[in-house]
Please model this.
Amino acid sequence: MAPRNLPHQSNLEQLKKQAKDLLKAYRARDADALADFSVHPQEVSSEAAKLTDAQLVLSRQYGFDSWPKLRKEVAGR
Model:
């Protein structure tokens, strides 16, 4: 999976919504969301997944090790 490019004008609210949408899709067992969660360091069932899991997956897709690091980058822009 190719990493996503973080738009220069990203904002935290937009990223939170993306994480919530990703979690919803993962819980619905959407094929793309299931593939996205392959970057998660632990196996997480769709039933047990939490928002923090989706935030971690999204962060890794944007090339960051964690949600706090992604948040810090967006706040600094």
